[in-house]
Structures are given as structure tokens and as C-alpha cells.
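Table S2 (text version). Query chain:
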Amino acid sequence: MDLLLIRHAQTHSNVSRALDTALPGADLTELGERQVADLAGHLADEEIDAVWCSPALRARRTAMGLAEPRGLEPREHPGLVEISAGDWEMSSDDAHADAYRDGVVAGLEGRQGPIVPGGESAAQAIARFDGAVDRIRAAGHDRVAVVSHGAMLRAWCGLRVANVPVELVRDRPLGNTGLVRLRAHGDGWMATEWDTEVVEPGGEAGPAAEPA
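Corresponding C-alpha cell output:
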């Protein structure tokens, strides 16, 4: 089984640099709408059997761009939402954004407790995302696109994907509509691509080959 993990397209909260993690969340910008079209074009020739997404508006709209051309209906799962910003919800303070990012990495490195004040812990976020992936995997499809959120995708990959080290999660954030390709590997997962870069078995990332 292959998973295509995709961050949603650009939103108005991305532009204002707000920590927007609660539902329903901000809508897409005009650039975000173009990003969805570009993503759909990039993946147009790929066989995708199902599309799942976070219930956030931005994720649903991004997922629809992949599902509609294939005659599919995106399926929502609450476990795919973003890691909670807690007491800092909708804050555009750069210090809060930095602390949120650093808290995600610290959670991957084993720090216990909430990532930010009033938020959830890394263990809680990973557990709910695990539940969503288990549900998706149980459906038995060969290739599934999953539209979720930047911090959530990076955190889950850092703990659940064998060749995604914490350093990759920390140093290579996913842009809007950034894509991580995973392949089932026993009971776990291996990454083959991280946002246009090939990921080697040992976790090193390098430029993907140009298409022929």
C-alpha cells in the first residue's frame, strides 16, 4: 500500500502567520486555489483509489481537487486534524509560532506534556493520527491520498516512518501542498519522497530526478 501524505493549500491564516488549528479554520487564498489545481495536475496520471482528509475547511477543499476528477468523494477523519495550538490559537506572535514548532520537535525527542500551553501532547496527537491511518489501511486500497496539516504530518512521519529522522522533520518543513510518499513496510512505513526530494533508506534526502 502507498500513502500520499499532502499538506493543504495556502490559507489566509498562513498569510497572516496565525496558529490556526481549530475547526473549521480559514479558507484558501486565491494562491491556495491555484495550488490545488497545480497539485491535481501534478498527480493527474497517478492511480489514486481513495482520498481522505482532515475535517478542516482547507483540507477538505484541497482533497476535493484530487477527488472530483476521479469521481471520488473525500472521506473525513477527525484524527487527521492539526496539532492543537491550545491557548495560542490564532496567535500571530512569532515567538508563539517558534515555540509551537520547537515543541513539536521536542515531543518527537521524547518530551512529555503539552506541546504548547493548553494544547495536546505529541503522544496524544500521534495516537489519534495512528487511529486514522489504521482506518485507512483497513479499507484495503492500494494507493490513498491523505490531506492533513504541516505539523501533524511532520510529527507523525518523524515517529512512525522508519527512514524519516527528527533532523529531516526539523530542517525540511512541508510547504503548502507539499507531498510525502510512503510505502507500507511490514507493519510500518518507509518514505520514498519528501516534498519533491527522494528519501534514501537511511533517511538522507536529495533532489528528485527530473521526469523524462
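Notes on Table S2: The chain has a mean pLDDT of 93. Helices lie at 12-16, 30-42, 57-67, 94-108, 122-138, 150-160, 166-171.
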